[in-house]
Amino acid sequence: MALSNKEPASLVQGPPITDIFTPFDMALSCLKGQLRNDVSFSVGAVLDQTGKDVMTNGGSGKMVTQGAGDMVQSALFQAGVSLLNRRDPRIIESEAKWGIRDPRQIQASDYYVTGSINSLDFIPGGGLDMQIGGVGPNYSQTRIMVGLDLSLTDTRNSKVVANVSLQKQIAAQDYGISAGRFAGHTLLNIQVGKGEREATNFALRQMLNLATFELLSQVIPPATFESCRAEIPPEFGQLSLTRSSVALYKFKESQKQNTAGSSRSLLEESSSHNTSSPDEKNKSTNSPSKDTKSPKNKESEVIKNPEEEPEMSKQDLIKYISMKKRSSSLGKMNEEKENNQKEEEKTLKLWDVNPGVIENYWSSTQRD
């Protein structure tokens, strides 16, 4: 309150102003230099499609932010991409109409981001209120689930090259203790409590930052964004079934197979170098071997029975026949598997390498 109506009231100074930081900013900053600078991005409409309004003492308003597009633009700028501002084209249009700006000098965007915040559901909560002798605790919990969709579109042919859908539960809880007693004819009632609520719009900013990272990850090779994805704390965000997650999983599996194959080949080479035949080790150069025979005896034996072979037991003969049959059947099966693998490789190429590897638009390390 002001002491006088002619003097201004003193303003209360709250906490200091700080920059906005989310747990996904480090992952976005890690992408700097990983995407080509000659590919330009812009942000279109990211609308509020929830249809939910809220009534407060100051009036009515929307329950979610109306500036989601600006948040996506800030996330793209933090990722270090070549960014064009299409949030408010009125100034450019006015200058072009006035004749002070040549529209042909304005750079065209190659890809743009659009989407919407399209779900806002209230999840039924629960609570507890217990009093014994007028004294007891109370607790209540409520949750809101928010969902959004973002898409990255090619401006040349309006083809969607990346898409992501995310959701988050925003939690709120209240707890405290109350006491009520009579002191003579006077009632004493004391209530102490505390409330904790996630900031809805800040939670949406986190979702939009993670969605932007996911869109950029879907159009670059997994080897490029693998280290950046490790910067995302799992307690703040987890991506398991997105397109980039599947591509990264396949990339890691192929790496494991390659390392296993290389280790096997090294072991085989080392074993081939280290092992030698026992005949060569036991062979003596000074004394003749007992197994050696005179040339005449060898020659006579060859003449007597040129096709002589050691007799095979019945069990060895059965094994030999079965292996022979099995080898023929395995050969057919291997041919069928190779044909199937070739067909699968044709169909999986577009999924495994992502559009960025096919057209080489994205990665700075893979240019035409």
Outline the structure in words:
The protein is α/β, with parallel strands linked by helices and 368 residues long. Helix content is 39%, strand content 26%. The protein contains nine helices and eight strands. The strands form two sheets. Strands 4-1-5-6-7-8 form a six-stranded mixed sheet. Strands 2-3 form a two-stranded antiparallel ribbon. The longest helix is centred in the last third of the chain and has 46 residues, at 314-359. The chain is flat.
Brief rundown of the structure:
The chain is an alpha/beta fold and 368 residues long. The chain is built from nine helices and eight strands.
Topology at a glance:
Elements: H1 25-30, E1 40-48, E2 53-56, E3 59-62, H2 68-78, E4 82-83, H3 90-98, E5 111-129, E6 135-154, E7 160-183, E8 186-197, H4 200-217, H5 222-229, H6 243-274, H7 278-282, H8 295-304, H9 314-359
Parallel strand pairs: 1-4, 1-5
Antiparallel strand pairs: 2-3, 5-6, 6-7, 7-8
